[in-house]
Model the fold of this input.
Amino acid sequence: MKKWQHFKWPFSAAFIILLLFVNAGISLALAESTAGNEPNEHERSILFTEDGYYRAPPALPGNSQKSLGRGELPGTELELSEEMVQSATLSSGSIQLLNGWNYISFPKHLNPWGGHNQASYVFAGVNTAGHSIFYYDSSTGLWKSVTPSTIIKPLVGYTIYSAGPYTLNPDYLPPNQQTNPYTNVYSGWNLIGYFDPMGNSNDDYLHAAMARDAMAPLGSDWSELIGWDAATQQYETSIIKDGSGIHSDYRLTYPNKAYWLWMNANRTLAYSVTHTYYCSAEWVGEYPGGDGDLPDSQDSADGFYDTLRWGSYWKGAFIRGDYDNPMARAADWKDSSYPGGMDDNPSTGIDTTNFAYFSGHGWPGGGILFAYGYPDRNEQELWYNEAIWGNIKADWIALDACSVLSESYNNYAVWQDSFKGLHSIVGWDTVGISSKDTGLIFANRLLQGKNIWESWKYATDAVVHFPGYKVGILAVDIDGNTNTKECIEDHIYGQGTWFSPPGYNVQFDKDFHNCLP
Amino acid sequence: MNIKFVKISGIALVIALIAILAGLFALNGIGPNGGELPPGVENVTRIQVTGILESSYKPSEVTSEIAFPSVPEKMTVYTVDRSISEKELLQIADNLGISDEISKTHSGFITIGQGNNQITSYKGTVDYSDDKTLPGYSPEYIDTHLPSDEEARRIADEFLDSHNLRPDGAVFYNTTHDVGHFVSPERGVEIKNSESINVWYRHWIDGNMVLTDKLYVKIDVHGQVRKMFREWPHYEPYKEFSIIGPEIAYGYLKDSAIVIPEGMKSPEKAKVTSISMVYIDHTMTEDLDYLIPVYYFQGVVQGDGKEAVFYQCIPATPEFAAKIT
Done:
């Protein structure tokens, strides 16, 4: 049975157009005030000291801060400047030093055997041109020199001068011997090392992470992160907690880099090397009113959920359909910033799970349809412009629903603003086939170690027996380099490589596949 | 006994009589094949033949200006065997140079091989995938390094033949392209960065295409074979059955919903552009136990301010239509 679709303009779109006319004057004024990426009030309160001077991180020993006048900002705070190291390539852990000062960190515990975790081994061969290697003791606010016997640890930032490029090849402990790292951070500036909040004992690769995720263990007690761009020998644009624009904490932080962290209180920064990932599914089989029933959607959702939740490192968070209380509903997919949105509800919100699956109706306008709330269409429908996914946990979403990624309707484009940490969405380009088997095949393929896009294509190839059906994927392209692909090649956690996307200035790869011509 | 009750009883009696007569007529209408029904279709009570692909898209008008095809009076119905023996899978793996033990999951997946070099079978499908990650390419690079469709077909033919993977009855059908793009909303750019060619083969039996079988070989840039996917069950002749004429099938089409893969909420005028006899062993969502002949109507339909292709399958053997509708 084919999945029903309907066509309509979203009420909100028309409303926005109206608002644009009504508020034209206000919009222009707003555009003027944000020109030049000037920080807003919240950001200024973090970037500047109480007496109005730019709050720069501590200068290296022997160096002095570049003086700035009251209210002045360095150029990097007005224009995005960041070194996107290792965003596009997976790494086993080598660290590339560039000529000059480098701010680096070691994202895993080093192997203590034979002293391979000591500075004399780790930094052997680096021509520091007579400079010391430093780390910053934030409890005293003093720099300390690294000695040959210093144990090099994760979560500590190191500054090292290199006369010319040089590659460090640290000897890390294997994944299954990594232990949970922690360090104390203090009010004021701390120079911290990066530790992948999602990478763990099942994964030998390094991953970037959105600053908000990397700093999540600190709760609301952090306010600013600043990286160092070794290529230009200057600080990067700061990342501000809950910042906007170029200061957004949806920007990525990277393995092997060190970051200046401004803390508002003393805390312990700690990570776990083991993780449990959660899947969820919602399905609608019986649609009230004139919308056709989909008797196979329950089996499709069950197949996905009951398969993936038994995968290594995975657990089921919830599956909800026609007979649950509450039923599957649009609110579980709608961001909490919208009226009625509950996608961050820990027991029912799909953004609290890593992989969410929906089986039900969709339509070319960019949305999915529920039975819950009938006959109130606003409650029944989830529109693309009500979805913000990944700001809590969602990494991947599969929409087993008609036309949600319709190429001819430009539907892949309408979902772009929903990506706030989400890696990818797979779905139907054309009308879809509602099959009992889709979710089961998809999840099995994922657990076979195939990537998400290949698994979706395989599942839909297997259930489509009639001509004309197409499926698609919209996935984040992290670095904007057309020669590299990132999230479109993602595997699920525990089954292969994956990339952490930013939620700021997101770029994409889209792809489509004919299931049967 | 009041008058109202008498009236209701009378009406009920008339309805029951009509229903009995209609039932007798319908049973009688099964005709000469009534005693030849396969297991599972004994309870046929109607012979109405409708489209097998149910949907809500029923156009307000269906027209056709093309000539009806000539068809035989009878056609063979086949039984379907979707199972693939371990021996057969091992042979396919061996042909691909994969030697490993068979691994099975409780849900019915069978895999041979590891990592990028493996085949998987599920419900009669066989998949061979080379999952090595490819970089993105510039449009110019793709255009100069992706084989032509003709070259892709030659590569696919050679792949199937050299690995002894071409199933009986496989005939080249056409090629399609899967195209990927890099999209930067902020920069307002959309750049092609991947493209592959799927070379499709279809299964023909008794001069008729099996619409629901498929085999494709995916050819990437540099002419590399990246994937083979096939669903190619075994068929054994079951019995010959009389078939309805195309004009009768066309009549049923007019009463049927149609399939519009691109989607159309309100189809209006549908025009048939092709009628052919094909076999199917699936409905849209169900596996059939028999390979049955159907009239395959294709055409274009107008509605929602656009035009789109449509199709519909009308079973040619009323007995099997009764089973699947």
